[in-house]
Every structure is written in structure tokens, then in C-alpha cells.
């Protein structure tokens, strides 16, 4: 059975149920139940019209649940078996679902979970595994999120920026368990890009494609992190890079720059270099200038300092670092790198060790410890 | 089967025999150490004895309730003298002897000069479930 195809149908089927008069939370539950039934039944009896099948089964599940609910409350049956005429068909249900699941009233963790289930069609168990929390915890997170958005009208226009933040969070989580969150984020962003003509949606899609293209080179055979400059560029996925560059160019041509397009442009310049030495650092610095202008983010300034160090030498990089809060994540790692390039190995070794102690992840801790060890070994002679 | 916690300390455990900070090892020694730890966990999975493994950052703060309507009091980051847990592995094994044996193997992870670190690990039994059948 084609599970990706099945999951692609989920948002549209939820949309149909909502248009027929189901509230979002009940529709979403019903579609999840229909999915579970599809997984059971389809291997033996594959339907000719998968979406029609899902709509029929999900609607039946919804009616069953609604009747049970109504009789529990001992009221008359209000829900008729006949679908009520829907509201305006021109509204794209899938798009509305993206907005609803990334609604600003939700915390980031809830928005991520709800998006993966209602838009992505993942089961609660899959979402829980991907985020390494117990299934019961994730089930609670999702049902609370659904309660939070229960008052939001389904056809309300939403803010694309909040949706993009959620998709970016999913992408950055990488992958664990049997769900590849990065690939799932790309699928959902691709689907969103097909439904809107927002430049930043295209920008984010390009950014994801360009980063994903490098994934095979980012980790060594023994699980170690391989920094960009040392990656085996033959392992980069040229098909993804080409697609990312195309998507980005089309977006940039519309001349409405945003932070994701700027980040994607930086990623594209890296992807462009056959060897690390051929990287166009001057242009990368220019894009970081744009990024800093757009976001005023300290993290962007920190990364800009690395690029300045490559374009204009380590002293210039160190000068660009001045004034940034030393408590910024990866600040000491950048400082260590620039000092090493400047030839001050003693300071660099000390800073790498310091950076290792405050590393945000185990692979980074190991990488920075190795860097400190490498310099200390050189210093011992 | 019984579960045991193998606890590794940044600070607070007696000093290990081969006590050289990791950044003073060679990069190859660092890699060999990390590989040993990975292989150890993989092997315990294959014997059906692995439960969980987590590493903790060296940052930490003590926190306590300070009364109704007041924000909690914090004490930290931890002073140099405080015990500091670095991480743990949870194993599910048949006997206490097996838990000790495995902790010993973990403590033999290679360090500076490729020699075992001989670091002290704390082995702590979990409370078990109430037996269904009691005489």
C-alpha cells in the first residue's frame, strides 16, 4: 500500500468533512480512524478511488462518533446522515488546515504536532516516536491543541509566516524513529508552495532542498559530524540542488526578499562551489548583510562573522564578532575557529574546549572536543 | 530481570585511573572512545539488555519552591565542588553480577594513550514491580 499517497489525501479529506459541517477536532479524529482502517483493509481490497473511500469511511466514523456523543448527552440526534451543502468551494481546504494548525494561539510544540497529524497524516504514535516522547503525552498535546483552535473559524485567512516557522521547526528536528521529519517537512512545504505564490514559501522550500541535498555528506561513517568545508561534495544530491536553485531563482525574480530567500541564497552559493576553496565568500557576506537587515538576528550576525573571516581574513571576522553576546549559542566555537585561522592555536584550543562544554548537542560536543584535541596534539609537537 | 542505572559523573566520583581531560587526548583517541561507547550500546541492544541511554549537558541549577505567589529560588550553576552527573545508561539484566560486569566493561572505555580510563561508574538498582504472585 502506498502510505505517502494515503497521507497526502488527509488534509483534503478533513476539509471535506469540515465543509459538510463537522467541527475540525471531530473531523480530524474521524480521518485518523479512517486512515487506520485503510491500513488494515487496503492491502487486500485496494479501492479504485482512494480519496472517495476515505471520505466515505471518515464521514461514517464521524457520524458514529457524533451519534454516540449526542446520545450520551441524551439529546435528539441533530446530525443527519445526508451531508449539508458546503460553504464556498473556492477556499482551499488544505491551505486552511495549514493556517489552523499553525495558529498563533498554539505553542510551537503544539503547532508542530498538530501539523504533522492533521496536515501530514502521521499517526500520534509516529509523531511521538519522532519527538522521543511517550505516545500518551503526544496524544494529550494534540488534543489540547485541537481544543485551543476549536474556536477558530476554518475559513479565516491565516498568516503564512507562522506556517513557515512551524515547517522550519519540523525540518530542523532531523530524523529519529521511523519518520524522516526533514523529508516530511519538505513534502509539506512543497505541497504548500503548490497552493500559494508567496515568495517566502518558495524561499523556505529552496532552503530545505539545498540543506537536504548535503545531508549524505554531513555525517561520517562513524556517526561523526562533518563540517561544510570538509564534506565530500560528490555526496551532495545534485538533483535536489538543481531543484532548490530553480525554486529560489523564481522567487528572487519577484523581488520581494525575505529571510528564507536570503538563507537559501547563502545555501545556494555553498552548493555552487565544487571545492570549499571556490566558495564565493564575498557574495555570501552580502547575503548575510541582507539577512541581518531583514531579521536583526544575533545568530545571523554570528554566522556573518564567519563569512567575513573567510572573505576578508580572520582579523576582520573577529572584528565582526565584537559586540555580540558571548552567551550566544556557538559563540565560543566561532571565536575558536577565527583564532585558529589567525594562528593563535593556544587560544583556539582553549576556546574549542570551552565551546565543547556548552555544546547544544552530543555530535557537536564530540566534534568540538576533537577540534580541541587536534590543536593540543599539534601544540605538543 | 532487573533494571539498573549506570551513572557517569562529570564530577563527584572518585578520580579515574587514567584521568586526563578529553581535549588533551589525540583526536584518534577521542574517536576510539566514542566508537567504544557506541559499540557497547549496540551490543547491549543485541543481547536484549539495553533500555535507555542519555547524556546531560554540564549546565545545571538547583531550584526550590519559595512560597505562594513567589518565584522559585534558584541556586546555580553548580559550584565546582558539587557532584555533576554526565549521563546514564539503563540496563535490564538477569543478575546483579551481570550489572557489575557490564559497568566494568563500560568503565574500560579507552582514553588517553588508548588505555582504559578505569572511571568510576555508579550502579543503582531500580525498585522492582510488586510481584503478582507472592507466597
From TrEMBL, chain A:
Pfam families: DUF6596, Sigma70_r2, Sigma70_r4_2. SUPFAM superfamilies: Sigma2 domain of RNA polymerase sigma factors, Sigma3 and sigma4 domains of RNA polymerase sigma factors. The keyword Transcription regulation applies. Residues 98-148 form the RNA polymerase sigma factor 70 region 4 type domain. GO terms for biological process: DNA-templated transcription initiation. This is RNA polymerase sigma factor (Sigma-70 family). GO terms for molecular function: DNA binding; sigma factor activity. PANTHER family: BLL6612 PROTEIN, BLL6612 PROTEIN-RELATED. Residues 161-251 form the DUF6596 domain. InterPro entries: DUF6596 (IPR046531), RNA_pol_sigma70_r2 (IPR007627), RNA_pol_sigma70_r4_t2 (IPR013249), RNA_pol_sigma_r2 (IPR013325), RNA_pol_sigma_r3/r4-like (IPR013324), WH-like_DNA-bd_sf (IPR036388). It comes from the Bacteria. Keywords: Sigma factor, Transcription, Transcription regulation. Residues 5-70 form the RNA polymerase sigma-70 region domain. Belongs to the sigma-70 factor family. ECF subfamily. Gene3D superfamilies: 1.10.1740.10, Winged helix-like DNA-binding domain superfamily/Winged helix DNA-binding domain. It comes from Nonomuraea endophytica.
UniProtKB/TrEMBL annotation, chain B:
Residues 17-107 form the YCII-related domain. It comes from the Bacteria. SUPFAM superfamilies: Dimeric alpha+beta barrel (SSF54909). Gene3D superfamilies: Dimeric alpha+beta barrel. Transmembrane segments: none annotated. Belongs to the YciI family. PANTHER family: BLL7171 PROTEIN, BLL7171 PROTEIN-RELATED. This is YCII-related domain-containing protein. It comes from Nonomuraea endophytica.
Amino acid at each position: 500500500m502506498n502510505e505517502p499517497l494515503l497521507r497526502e489525501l488527509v488534509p483534503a479529506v478533513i476539509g471535506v468533512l469540515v465543509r459538510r459541517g463537522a467541527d475540525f477536532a471531530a473531523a480530524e479524529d474521524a480521518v485518523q480512524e479512517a486512515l487506520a482502517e485503510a491500513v488494515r483493509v487496503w492491502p487486500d481490497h485496494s479501492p479504485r478511488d482512494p480519496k472517495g473511500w476515505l471520505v466515505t469511511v471518515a464521514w461514517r466514523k464521524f457520524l458514529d462518533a457524533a451519534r454516540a456523543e449526542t446520545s450520551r448527552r441524551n439529546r435528539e440526534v441533530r446530525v443527519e446522515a445526508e451531508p449539508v451543502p458546503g460553504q464556498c468551494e473556492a477556499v482551499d481546504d488544505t491551505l486552511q488546515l495549514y493556517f489552523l494548525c499553525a495558529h498563533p494561539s498554539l505553542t510551537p510544540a503544539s503547532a508542530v504536532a498538530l501539523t504533522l497529524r492533521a496536515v501530514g497524516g502521521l499517526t500520534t504514535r509516529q509523531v511521538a516516536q519522532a519527538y522521543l516522547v511517550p505516545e500518551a503525552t503526544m496524544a494529550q498535546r494534540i488534543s489540547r491543541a485541537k481544543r485551543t483552535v476549536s474556536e477558530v473559524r476554518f475559513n479565516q485567512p491565516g498568516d503564512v509566516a507562522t506556517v513557515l516557522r512551524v515547517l522550519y521547526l519540523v525540518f530542523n528536528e532531523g530524523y529519529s524513529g521511523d519518520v524522516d521529519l526533514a523529508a516530511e517537512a519538505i513534502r509539506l512545504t512543497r505541497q504548500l508552495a503548490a497552493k500559494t505564490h508567496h515568495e517566502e514559501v518558495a524561499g523556505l522550500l529552496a532552503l530545505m532542498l539545498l540543506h537536504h541535498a548535503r545531508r549524505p555528506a554531513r555525517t561520517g561513517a562513524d556517526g561523526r559530524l562533518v563540517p561544510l568545508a570538509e564534506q565530500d561534495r560528490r555526496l551532495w544530491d545534485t538533483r535536489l540542488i538543481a531543484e532548490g536553485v530553480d525554486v529560489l531563482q523564481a522567487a528572487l525574480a519577484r523581488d520581494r526578499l525575505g529571510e528564507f530567500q536570503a538563507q537559501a541564497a547563502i545555501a545556494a552559493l555553498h552548493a555552487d562551489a565544487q571545492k570549499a576553496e571556490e566558495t564565493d565568500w564575498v557574495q555570501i557576506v552580502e547575503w548575510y548583510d541582507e539577512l541581518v537587515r531583514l531579521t536583526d538576528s544575533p545568530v545571523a550576525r554570528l554566522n556573518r562573522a564567519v563569512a567575513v573571516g573567510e572573505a576578508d581574513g580572520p582579523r576582520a571576522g573577529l572584528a565582526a564578532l565584537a559586540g555580540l553576546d558571548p552567551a550566544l549559542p556557538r559563540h565560543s566555537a566561532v571565536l575558536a575557529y577565527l583564532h585558529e585561522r589567525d594562528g593563535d592555536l593556544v587560544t583556539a584550543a582553549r576556546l574549542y574546549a570551552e565551546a565543547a562544554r556548552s555544546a547544544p548537542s552530543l555530535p557537536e560536543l564530540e566534534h568540538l572536543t576533537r577540534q580541541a584535541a587536534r590543536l593540543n596534539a599539534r601544540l605538543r609537537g | 530481570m532487573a533494571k539498573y542505572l549506570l551513572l557517569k559523573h562529570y564530577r563527584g566520583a572518585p578520580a579515574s585511573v587514567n584521568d586526563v581531560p578529553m581535549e588533551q587526548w589525540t583526536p584518534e583517541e577521542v574517536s576510539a572512545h566514542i566508537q567504544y561507547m557506541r559499540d557497547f550500546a549496540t551490543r547491549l541492544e543485541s543481547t536484549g539488555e539495553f533500555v535507555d541511554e542519555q547524556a546531560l549537558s554540564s549546565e545545571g541549577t538547583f531550584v526550590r519552591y519559595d512560597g505562594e505567589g513567589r518565584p522559585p529560588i534558584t541556586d546555580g550553576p553548580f559550584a565546582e565542588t558539587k557532584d555533576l552527573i554526565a549521563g546514564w545508561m539503563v540496563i535490564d539484566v538477569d543478575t546483579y553480577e551481570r550489572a557489575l560486569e557490564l559497568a566494568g566493561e563500560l568503565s574500560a572505555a579507552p582514553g588517553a594513550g588508548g588505555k582504559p580510563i578505569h572511571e568510576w561508574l555508579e550502579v543503582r538498582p531500580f525498585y522492582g514491580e510488586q510481584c503478582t504472585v507472592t507466597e
